[in-house]
């Protein structure tokens, strides 16, 4: 166990306030001049609307910090929002957000997440920071994504891959000097008392907002209601590094009105119906297998009068003709080797 984690554990054992006393955390949720590598408990966890501000100085070319935990310490640094205290070794707690400015030849900003000891697909951007200059990074959590602002000049968005409620700690490492770190609580929600309400007669003409969920674990199950038609399903998923199956089912009571099985070992998508416990004839015809490991995909499922339409990445993938009446469908299930990042019913 590292010295920083041992110190953190001792602080937590002797301090029930939830704040890291060993790191000069004052009553206004500020940490001044922390030594690196740093790992700190986030007071009250990470919630939508909360933000973390980090101010400091990026060390100049070839300036090595004796406290730096990285071998190539003058080439990059990292800010990690973590799901626990295990930040080193073969088995680490998940990292919901990895912000990694790199100052090597590529000079890129890399964003990523570590889930089950496996890094996901990188999101790369031009690095907005420079060596030898002061910097300010503000990370703001929203319901569906992070907004990461650099020196008030550049703001980059990153879609959640891990639920906000899982985030417990922040880690900073690398060749950088941190002057201060500050936590800002979510602004209070507005009260609606006394506001004019929408008349009943007008409500039917207002389109309902879509139902949206973020960062859901698999297997995932949700009731769906047939009202004149099934809602359009849109969801974003990240395929794991070594996938085997991803399956989705539209259930109609004890039957399966539409079963779709993405089979990576066969490079096929099998579609079928299960009626009274028995599978019917499979459909496998497909122009191209659209999925690859360690990639993110957006899927749309439309239920039309005669068939389902499935789109992947905005492109048509296949149709599946109804064999059971779609008005009988009452539930949607999704399971397999993927992470559900966003799910929307429209």
Automatic annotation (TrEMBL):
Keyword annotations of the record: Lectin
PROSITE patterns in the record: GALECTIN (PS51304)
Superkingdom field: Eukaryota
A UniProt-annotated Pfam family: Gal-bind_lectin
Domain Galectin: 38-184, 214-346
GO molecular function: carbohydrate binding
Classification via CDD domains: GLECT
Name the UniProt record assigns to this protein: Galectin
Organism: Trichuris suis (pig whipworm)
Taxonomic placement: Eukaryota, Metazoa, Ecdysozoa, Nematoda, Enoplea
